[in-house]
């Protein structure tokens, strides 16, 4: 009897595949950081039953049309805007994602980015490296307090709730805006639901954890930044396309907001001459929200379990379509 074949679009540790070698024929792109070329992805999709892909792999209608026996696409991410979900459903291909397992790690990174930006840690580290630290001064690299300030969370999903829990420990007032009001979260997290305009105008820190949709495309635009406090810090750990990067650059340059911390960008990877990189009051990270050994391992394991379940005609653990 033929074993099902799966293709993995990035190199993953062999030990994570050991228990599946008797179950699947496993094919894998052997480069960890270099993306699988489009032509290789299309070729592999023609001959596999399952696909384990990452967020930067575009599994669009053209790729799906190459498949002859594909049954499941396991996306190693919470988001899935890189996959044509509706077309996959038409073809009978199940798509899964990796929610929950990365929520706490991503919330850690978001809160870290907020604190590092507020306290100007990136500037301070470079200050020493450049040999500029000669004396102590009362307001040398003085930043912004986080304790007892107001945090506005845009998108109160699992990650947003995890950030709110951390904010409680810092005595912060938590405001949130979401497509649906979440009264249980309000009770548990001492969070207050407000309209978007009020969140922007009242928050000392604004953090985006919204999914990318037609409604959230360029949600943070010129008008949004104009509504924020001049002392406000903006953080994005969701999707790059929810921010108008030119508007953000102009707002930072003009002093309309104080600083920004970004883990995601509209086009990734960004070039070394991206305008936001020239600003001292911006910290930019290479999309590492869930990048801990434990979390990335759990994400891969969940993808493999989803593929195994579907190919064994069982229900997937985390289907999205």
UniProtKB/TrEMBL annotation:
Gene3D superfamilies linked: NAD(P)-binding Rossmann-like Domain
SUPFAM superfamilies: Formate/glycerate dehydrogenase catalytic domain-like (SSF52283), NAD(P)-binding Rossmann-fold domains (SSF51735)
InterPro entries recorded: D-isomer_2-hydroxyacid_DH (IPR050223), D-isomer_2_OHA_DH_cat_dom (IPR006139), D-isomer_DH_CS (IPR029753), D-isomer_DH_CS1 (IPR029752), D-isomer_DH_NAD-bd (IPR006140), NAD(P)-bd_dom_sf (IPR036291)
Residue ranges of every copy of the D-isomer specific 2-hydroxyacid dehydrogenase catalytic domain listed in the record: 7-321
Keywords: Oxidoreductase
Record's keyword annotation contains Oxidoreductase: yes
Nucleotide-binding recorded as keyword: no
Domain D-isomer specific 2-hydroxyacid dehydrogenase NAD-binding, first and last residues per copy: 111-289
Pfam families: 2-Hacid_dh, 2-Hacid_dh_C
Family: Belongs to the D-isomer specific 2-hydroxyacid dehydrogenase family.
Protein's name according to its UniProt entry: D-glycerate dehydrogenase
């Amino acid at each position: 009897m033929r074993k099902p074949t799966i293709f993995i679009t990035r190199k993953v540790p062999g030990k994570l595949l050991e228990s599946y070698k008797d179950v699947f024929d496993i094919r894998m792109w052997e480069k960890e950081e270099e993306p699988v070329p489009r032509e290789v992805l299309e070729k592999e999709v023609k001959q596999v039953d399952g696909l384990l892909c990452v967020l930067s792999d575009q599994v669009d209608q053209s790729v799906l049309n190459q498949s002859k026996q594909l049954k499941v696409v396991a996306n190693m991410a919470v988001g899935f805007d890189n996959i044509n979900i509706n077309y996959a459903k038409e073809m009978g291909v199940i798509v899964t994602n990796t929610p929950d397992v990365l929520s706490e790690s991503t919330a850690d990174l978001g809160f870290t980015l907020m604190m590092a930006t507020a306290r100007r840690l990136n500037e301070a580290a470079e200050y020493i490296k450049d040999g500029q630290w000669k004396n102590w001064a009362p307001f040398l690299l003085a930043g912004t307090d986080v304790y007892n300030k107001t945090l506005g969370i845009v998108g109160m999903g699992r990650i947003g709730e995890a950030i709110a829990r951390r904010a409680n420990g810092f005595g912060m007032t938590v405001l949130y805006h979401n497509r649906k009001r979440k009264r249980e979260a309000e009770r548990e997290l001492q969070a207050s639901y407000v309209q978007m305009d009020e969140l922007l105008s009242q928050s000392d820190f604004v953090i985006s954890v919204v999914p990318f949709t037609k409604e959230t495309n360029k949600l943070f635009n010129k008008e949004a930044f104009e509504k924020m406090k001049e002392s406000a810090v903006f953080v994005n750990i969701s999707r790059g396309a929810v921010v108008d990067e030119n508007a953000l650059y102009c707002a930072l340059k003009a002093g309309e907001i104080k600083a920004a911390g970004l883990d995601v960008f509209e086009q990734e990877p960004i070039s070394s001459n991206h305008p936001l990189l020239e600003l001292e009051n911006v910290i930019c990270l290479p999309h590492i929200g869930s990048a801990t050994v434990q979390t990335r391992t759990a994400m891969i394991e969940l993808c493999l379990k989803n593929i195994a379940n579907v190919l064994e005609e069982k229900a997937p653990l985390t289907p999205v379509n």
